[in-house]
């Protein structure tokens, strides 16, 4: 990522313009301590008493008050309209992993754009923290220490296939596609191993945020 505007050796919390609980922001920052706001997420950061290390976006949502409060050198205006503010952050932030907050529970078109951005930036290890779920793009191999009965959903963002162990309904030999077979509301029978080919989102209950992050990190 030679064009990165933000480089961090620690995890980064990306804050979007949607609703979020202040306790969730504290949780995210305890795991990913550098705070980066996506455009209007800067207002939410300041309202929560947090000063973002950087703001990235086309600046069509951030308020004038937030721009005045945040040091100019921390504001990175990216005027192109070919990507969303979340997509700009994924492209321009370099970090071991990212936690996205304030991106779930948005308007449906915004939420779909977030899912698309996850699929189009497979090099980023990014977990979206929502009110009920965590969502991330599966790497080619994924190991999750799930308990029996844990809900696990798979949603393809393009043609995809895979193999599994530890799922109540195995995915071996199945072809997935957004307008075809999807894998919502599967269930773990114990620890889960996935081998995935193609862009596949994984959705878990939000209590599995930490294990999901650990599963995405190499080694």
Topology, please?
Blueprint: E1 6-7, E2 12-15, H1 22-31, E3 34-38, H2 41-47, E4 54-57, H3 64-69, E5 75-77, H4 85-92, E6 93-94, E7 98-101, H5 108-120, E8 126-129, E9 133-137, E10 141-144, E11 151-156, E12 160-167, E13 175-176, E14 183-197, E15 200-205, H6 209-216
Question: Mind explaining what this structure looks like?
Answer:
The protein is of the alpha/beta class and 219 residues long. The chain has two domains: 126 residues, Rossmann fold (3-Layer(aba) Sandwich), CATH 3.40.50.10240; 70 residues, Jelly Rolls. The strands form two sheets. Strands 2, 3, 4, 5, 7, 8, 9, 10, 11, 12, 13, 14 and 15 form a 13-stranded mixed beta sheet that branches. α2 links the parallel β3 and β4. 42% of the residues are buried. The model has no long low-confidence stretch (mean pLDDT 95).
Keywords:
elongated, single chain, 13-stranded mixed beta sheet, Jelly Rolls, Rossmann fold, two-stranded parallel ribbon, 219 residues, alpha/beta
In quaternary terms, these chains amount to single chain
Q: Give the name of the CATH superfamily of the largest domain.
A: Thiamin pyrophosphokinase, catalytic domain
CATH topology of the largest domain: Rossmann fold
How many domains make up the coordinates? 2
Report the major sheet. Answer: 13 strands, mixed
Strand content: 25-35%
Question: What is the CATH first-level class name of the largest domain?
Answer: Alpha Beta
